[in-house]
Amino acid sequence: MARTLDITTSDPVCPVCDRPIPKGVPQSAHHLIPKLKGGKGGPTVLLHHICHREIHASLTEAELARDYRTVDALRAHPRLAKFATWVRKRPPGFLSKIPGGMRKR
């Protein structure tokens, strides 16, 4: 799906779900290479908190470090792609519990 950007807003856009991240909405920085796997001080991306939680509920630190070091790789993961399609229909401040909890490191 092509990304559409509203050039009238200065809010950052979540690279997982393509929704804006307005001020006051829970957000977090995701290390593209996990800190525990050598990514301390490495590149990060700003995400909605719910999108960040889904990444860590779907993938282990080792999987993230080995196979999912880029936003494009994360978006291509089947569970994350399905999640992004679902959450894209919700307002930017939407929060929900992530089923299954975090994956083991």
Description:
It comes from Sulfitobacter guttiformis. This is HNH endonuclease. It is a single chain. With 105 residues, the chain is of the alpha+beta class. It has helices at residues 49-58, 61-67, 71-76, 78-87, and strands at 27-31, 44-48. The protein has a domain at 27-87. The protein has a two-stranded antiparallel ribbon with strand order 1-2. α1 runs antiparallel to α4 (78-87). The longest helix has 10 residues, at 49-58. Mean pLDDT is 86; it is low at 4-8.
Question: What is this structure, in a nutshell?
Answer:
It comes from Sulfitobacter guttiformis. This protein is 31% helix and 10% strand. The protein has 105 residues and is an alpha+beta fold.
Mean pLDDT: 86
Oligomeric nature of the chains: single chain
Percent strand equals: 5-15%
| Class from secondary-structure proportions | alpha+beta
Q: What is the 3D shape?
A: globular
Q: Given the structure, what is the number of helices?
A: 4
Helix content: 25-40%
